[in-house]
Amino acid sequence: MRKVEDQVKKLAALTSVMVMAAAEAMAQEKGRPARRIVISIPDRKLAVLEADRVVRVFGTAVGAPNSPSPSGTFQIVNHIPDPTWYTKGKVVAPGPANPLGTRWMGLSLKGYGIHGTNSPKSIGRNVSHGCIRMKNGDVEALFEMVAVGDVVELHAERTAELDGIFGPAAAPAPATTAPMTVVASLQ
């Protein structure tokens, strides 16, 4: 059984490399270099890079603590304008009530994607079920910039590369301490 699992892992790794190479080749055939999307989960930001140059940065909402966004390297596997949302026994057609907003870019990790929202006030917060949410205008711009096969990197922790893309991480606010009042009680 262990041999089969190892073979499946090797096949998955090989497939991933082949998909990335094919995506780069297709992008070059389309007259543009391959683009990659880099997402900093702690910063709740997404950057589009072309040849390691930042093309554009967008604000996002990411997974809530009880449903965190995954970390890792994935690819865009589908590109759907005006998506329909399907959930447990419920279907929401495209329109203002659709939680996916106006665009869906599915990732190679089933059930996860980058999409718009019907709740723009959620951007900048950790509130999704693991997907990456964007304002509808922003996701529409991103939709035009990237293609099926483009690489998507989700980072759960800050790295030197993320500092270069998004700037240094903001230092946490210093803890404030109020003067302590000591009340002694003798009973």
Describe the structure.
- The chain is built from three helices and twelve strands.
- The protein is α/β, with parallel strands linked by helices and about 190 residues long.
- The protein has one domain: L,D-transpeptidase catalytic domain-like, CATH 2.40.440.10.
- The strands form three sheets. An eight-stranded mixed sheet has the order 3-2-1-12-5-8-9-11, with helices on both faces.
- Mean pLDDT is about 85; it is low at about 10-15 and about 175-185.
CATH topology: L,D-transpeptidase catalytic domain-like
- Mean of the pLDDT scores? 83
Widest sheet: strand order? 3-2-1-12-5-8-9-11
Per CATH, the superfamily is L,D-transpeptidase catalytic domain-like
Distance N terminus to C terminus? 71 Å
Characteristic key phrases:
alpha/beta, eight-stranded mixed sheet, 29% strand, 3 helices, L,D-transpeptidase catalytic domain-like, disordered C terminus, two-stranded parallel sheet, 187 residues
